[in-house]
# Entry
Amino acid sequence: MAHALLVIAAETVEHSKTAYYVCAGALAVWAVILSFVGLRDPDFPGSAVASRGVMALTAVLVLAAMATAVITA
# Structure
């Protein structure tokens, strides 16, 4: 009986989605900033190293948003 109650309680606990909202918001802000900078400067990001940095940061933000979405679901 106690095990059944623990299982039911574990299934009904709602996880905080704050981490997802922060990560998804950061990704959205990054996308807007990236689009404005990319539209204003035709040579953006300028070098191969800067291009890899932009791609790496974007990948980290996407993975963080995806991971927090799965964890908080």
Q: What stands out?
A: The mean pLDDT is 88.
